[in-house]
Design a protein that fits this description.
536 residues; alpha+beta; Pdz3 Domain; 2-enoyl-CoA Hydratase, Chain A, domain 1; 3 domains; seven-stranded mixed β-sheet; five-stranded antiparallel β-sheet; 18 helices; 19 strands; Tail-specific_protease
């Protein structure tokens, strides 16, 4: 028989698996000979139905839509006008995202094609393109292909400069600041829908002309190439890497905990406990590195569980403002359960308002009870570093922010992908007539801080800025991790690694044995409240 605790594990598992860049749409597309998947046409009626659906859901449940009449907003009027004639699916989806960016400038609120579907049906360029940090936007290739070498810089793509392309991303991709755009997934820059919408394809719609700056005998030289679009090879099912692992390096007196997704399940708890037990038993280790550079978010409870090995005192978290709606209760019913409502009311929280205010001072205590006590291990009293990047997003961004705000550790890398306070607790909808999922923000997380200048910040900035350079990519060097390791080098040898077996992300395991419980009713309510922390 399932306990209240394990029931909530199952409920949370159904909500938090996936990232801001991976959707679960079940829309099936028919392959049309000789036609790119993204350019198939939507009729005016199909567009109107899809737009009406998005606007209605946003008006009814979106946090940022409170007080707005969306139909009177200029961005909506412009989008409505554009749906009067048939248009391609990619143009419609980019138009929706442009509208959402103009309305909310919220990286969570967006429409997105299913990633697996796009890989199977959308053609792309055989390149590994990403952005380099610097005063000017620069695009670099990081893999060896028939047409490009590692370290090639893109100076022109489809006749557009990197600055031109970045400006188009700023107009069409929902974001809060540019660090998020600099960290967009690599497939996006080479996928047919992006290339088509930005006008980078040749007239035959089957290739893109590029000018690459490549190392030559006398410095960089321009190399012109034309790269064809192609579907990704289908070479069978690829193993899914574990989202959590660790490595202990005795020679540098450092233990590295790598977390690529905020998934709070049995696998995470097992690796976390193994990690801290290993650190506790190893007298050489005086430095811990928490690597959040590839973490796009999930469930914030992973942070609470991790930090209980750092401190057992209450600490500053963040406030949550949650819009209540029927759709919220439909998709996250535990938040509207009578037990949860009664518990919140007992804390003095007014549940009659459209927006529920949940203070961070209470969340700190509540979540520490949910995550449980770290057995009998001593608290870690060494140095903690956190590696961040523009990919560090949502709950991972909050994880890094809480560590920085409470002086638990030092951040190294590049700024995170969110503004300090941002929207979250997403609802997901399948958009009619399309292969799109719509993600809608229903809450706002507001960091607590004594820094009077926080409102002017556009990200959580690292204490030590260490961007990845072209030279790092050419050398295959991990710039941020090597920076930390070089400061902790010892003349000892030995490396211990540990990872759990890869999983599909979902877990039906009951991990209540890893936690302290204070009665089913209280725990039921606590876990319901922790649902508000799932901000993806």
């Amino acid at each position: 028989m399932l306990t209240h605790f394990s029931t909530f594990i199952l409920i949370i598992g159904s909500l938090l698996f996936g990232s801001p860049f991976t959707t679960t749409s079940a829309f099936a597309q028919e392959q049309e000979d000789g036609l790119l998947a993204s350019v198939r046409v939507l009729t005016a009626d199909e567009q109107q139905e899809a737009l009406d659906f998005i606007l209605n859901k946003t008006q009814e449940s979106g946090y940022s839509a409170i007080g707005l009449d969306l139909e009177t907003e200029p961005a909506v009027i412009l989008m409505r006008d554009s749906t009067s004639v048939p248009t391609s699916r990619f143009a419609f989806s980019f138009g929706l995202n442009r509208m959402l960016q103009d309305l909310f400038a919220d990286a969570h609120s967006r429409v997105e094609v299913d990633a697996i579907l796009a890989e199977a049906t959308y053609a792309s360029l055989n390149l590994c393109l990403s952005w380099l940090h610097g005063e000017e936007p620069r695009i670099i290739n990081s893999c060896e292909t028939d047409s490009a070498q590692v370290g090639d810089l893109v100076t022109s793509m489809g006749g557009r400069t990197p600055a031109d392309i970045f400006a188009m991303l700023q107009e069409t991709i929902p974001h809060e600041q540019d660090f998020f755009l600099l960290a967009l997934p690599q497939p996006w820059l080479v996928r047919e829908d992006f290339l088509s919408y930005f006008g980078l394809l040749n007239d035959d719609s089957a290739s893109v002309d590029l000018i690459l700056a490549r190392d030559g005998e006398q410095g960089l030289k321009d190399v012109s190439v034309s790269i064809p679009l192609a579907l990704a090879p289908t070479d069978g099912i690829k193993p899914i890497p574990s989202f959590v692992s660790f490595e202990v390096q005795n020679e540098t007196s450092t233990a590295v905990f790598k977390l690529d997704a905020c998934i709070f399940n049995a696998e995470y708890m097992a690796v976390l406990e193994d990690f801290w037990s290993t650190v506790d038993a190893n007298e050489n280790v005086d430095t811990v590195v928490l690597d959040l550079r590839e973490n796009r978010g999930g469930d914030f409870t992973v942070a609470t569980a991790f930090l209980q090995y750092i401190t057992r005192d209450p600490y500053t978290l963040f406030d949550i403002k949650q819009r209540q709606s029927d759709e919220l209760c439909n998709q996250i019913p535990t938040l509207c359960d009578p037990q949860t409502v009664g518990f919140l009311q007992s804390l003095g929280i007014d549940m009659s308002n459209e927006v529920m205010d949940l203070p961070g001072s209470a969340m700190s205590i509540f979540l520490s009870q949910v995550a449980g006590s770290p057995s009998s291990l001593d608290l870690f009293n060494g140095t903690l570093y956190v590696l961040t990047s523009g990919v560090t997003f949502s709950s991972a961004h909050l994880f890094a922010a809480v560590i920085k705000r409470n002086n638990f550790g030092t951040l190294v890398g590049t700024p995170t992908g969110n503004t300090p306070s941002f929207g979250g607790n997403l609802l997901q909808f399948s958009v009619p007539n399309t292969d799109l999922s719509y993600y809608l923000t229903t809450s706002r997380s507001e960091l607590n801080s004594t820094d009077v200048n926080d409102e002017d910040l556009d990200a959580i900035y690292p204490d030590i800025l260490v961007p990845t350079t072209r030279e790092d990519i050419l050398a295959g060097r991990d710039a941020q991790l090597e920076y930390v390791l070089e400061m902790n080098t010892l003349n000892t040898n030995g490396t211990t690694t540990s990872t759990m077996p890869p999983t599909s992300g979902h877990s039906d395991d009951d991990i209540s044995g890893a936690h302290s419980t204070n009665g089913g009713g209280v725990l039921f309510a606590l876990y319901s409240i922790s649902m508000l922390m799932i901000v993806f």
